[in-house]
Design brief:
mainly alpha, 17 helices, globular, disordered N terminus
Amino acid sequence: MVVEIKRTDPGVPRWRTVLKCLLVIVVLYVFLGGMAMMGDGLKALGKNPDYEPSGVVAADNRPYRDVVYDIFTYADDPVVGFFVGILVTAVFQSSSFTTSFVVSLVVTTPLTLHQAIFIVMGANIGTSITAVGVSFTHVRRQQEFARAYGAATVHEFFKMLTVLVFFPLEWVVWRLTGTGVLERASSKLAVLLCTGRVADQSPTNPIKEAVRPMADGLEWLLDSGFGLSHEVASVVISILGIVLLLVALILMTMILRSLVVHRVERFFDKVLFRNAGAAFVVGLILTAIVQSSSVTTSLVVPLAGTGLLTIGQVLPYTLGAAIGTTVTAMLASVATSADTPEQAQVGVALACSHLLFNVFGSMVWYPFRRVPITIAQWFGGMASRSRRLALMLVLGVFFGLPILAILVSWLLG
């Protein structure tokens, strides 16, 4: 389908409109590159620089620093495990990282699949922090900020409502029968999907490969050119990634605002987001390609802020994104190498629990979608009136409460 973009007014040349569309693509590439740099830098801080992949994995030779493993030792309590999932995902900006890391813990430590499922529930909420952070690029325009903050948090509130249903259900059924609902369903699904074969490689990510030169080039410059240490270079990469991310978002918002014309509105409203099913499919496919729901949900925040999309259109898109990222994780868990078929099956079961959590949540709450939409709209209006309170809520939900839960568990333990 060819979409014709008309001039904003008769005095604006067509080539200028086309140039702005090309600039959106360039800025989007910078945005994805900044996201990759930020994630790589943060993950590198948690990695053990002395780890030898060819050696035996032991207490003195593990892929990540001891502090990362120590955080997960508090996951014996489901509530604490839930908050650990939020905190780790918010810090490392990736629910896929949390899920894959927890898979390795389930295989190599006493952490059980039942405990890991509660961590995955927290990871589902922690991944929303990226989109919420993106909404603050609209903070100087009250109405835009209200729309952007509401669009960014509708996904978060949907996940919280899903947790309110499945967290107690999982825990109560586990106490009564010894196996939780998600644990039982995901284990049965893993038996069907896992053949017991040990694969040689995991699926590649074409988007990450496309922006990889930015991160690799900067890493080489800081390491070989300036001779910075691993820790300092990781911090610099993270900071520069955040700067590029913010600059790209500001530029994207400015360009999109200037392109808010009838034809562009029709393209989003009548084509990509013409109904809930289309929005869901767009979110699902785009996330399966990008392999990051943080990226795809963040992309629609500027569109909502500038008025191109409504919160009602954003919600089914984010549901598709949530399921799209779990499908990718499930495929990756099938292809990821494992020492034994049993270990591979545990990894697939955990990935399946991530998928089922979002599928069941959509089935339960989408018929009552006015609930998360209304909550998000209310918080969007509140955020636009009190930006300081909006920031405090973000810090409290993603960092304050999780850290407090871990500290209380540590004191009581």
